[in-house]
């Protein structure tokens, strides 16, 4: 009898599991069945064969339907393929998709309570408070620091050129590694307010923390499970957090923030950076307008009047660090790599840079300026094309927060359903971007418009689009101007980038991205 009950239990369990993993088929939806039970589409991720961004992109390319049912372990989700529907749920129907459905625990894990993770009204309130941090006036005030980091990068390249010069052939540079160092220093200086120079001292603590996040994370098995559950099953992530499974790197960053704030307030130090704005928000409840005389003033407040905690400041600075450093570095590196394969585009970019710098007499004296960078319109097109072909985040995610009837389709997305958007697949879809594998900045020219604007969303779309997108683009353009004004890039044969497996959401090139540069002009 015992054996019979055991066998019966196994059979019932199998049918329950089978029913769970066939719900999309029973609803009549196209379904990805490549991974099987229990991994679903994460099978190749679990085998360390492909990063998650490429898995979603391959599913996108394998179907023609507007939406595809997928399974991420035991979590059912919908991958959307219709650009009009995607834009609709992110904008006009945002009220039904306002959360991301990822792990957040404001009470027991305050470092998870940042703008990316927060839900509902809590997110909306914080978003409104932080938005003034990235105004044109604030970016102009921070620009001097960005320019200084760019100069350090050029001095590093000149020294490298001097040490490794091989005659007229120039020297080989891994632009992905170079751009990562630049981006880390930008984040450290402009966001955390630290005086670091990773070009001169690559082993500084801040740079080593970045390596821990993106290059060689030394997390144990439980921490790896926790990272997956943050996205797949937040309740399990919450349980692991309360059992003490946390990432030590995030707490290291919290210590850096706390020490910096204490030092500034004790010594009356004021810097024009994002941390200073968040200190102001903490002490006054708001960030001043650009024309406010008290914008960069150091102010204190009684503990009971402080608007946000050090934990919340740390959480959001950590978000800007993670979201900004790798995406900025990748955009710089991929742009230079593509320009090396398209010499006619490279020449056109350099001509524009030369024209703007000579117009403002910046080849002979003076630093770059925010307004000069804004004048470089063709460079803008090149950056847009890079973000089209290599979006910083290869996929977006949302959670359905209210039942939603899909227009022109007899299907309702139920509340709680996870939504996946493969930007990597969408941006390389010839239906929206003709000849998608070609690097063609002119497609974004207003007189050409050889693409469907509704499908272009490298920073997301709607109320939850990237809050720091202008800062990100500015940092990218400064690096490109510095490099292309000072160096020529040797032509490369056409070859598509291969991506290596990694547990982070971003796509990382296999073996780096190497180009050959040769000295061109005096320093900008």
Secondary structure topology:
Layout: H1 2-20, H2 23-26, H3 43-46, H4 52-62, E1 67-72, E2 75-80, H5 83-90, H6 120-130, H7 136-164, E3 171-174, H8 175-191, H9 205-214, H10 221-232, H11 234-242, H12 248-267, H13 274-284, H14 310-341, H15 343-359, H16 370-375, H17 377-389, E4 395-399, E5 404-405, E6 412-413, E7 418-422, H18 423-426, H19 469-486, E8 487-489, E9 499-500, E10 508-509, E11 514-519
Parallel strand pairs: 2-7
Antiparallel strand pairs: 1-2, 3-11, 4-7, 5-6, 8-11, 9-10
Helix pairs in contact: 7-8, 7-19, 8-14, 10-11, 12-14, 14-17, 14-19, 15-17
The main β sheet shows up as: 4 strands, mixed
* Average pLDDT over all residues: 87
Net shape: globular
State the share of residues found in helices, binned by percent.
Answer: 40-55%
Order of H and E elements:
HHHHEEHHHEHHHHHHHHHHEEEEHHEEEE
Radius of gyration: 24 Å
Beta fraction: 5-15%
E-strand count: 11
Contiguous uncertain segments of 5+ residues:
none
Q: How is the largest sheet built, in terms of strand order?
A: 1-2-7-4
If helices are DSSP runs of H or I spanning 4 or more residues, what is the number of helices?
Answer: 19
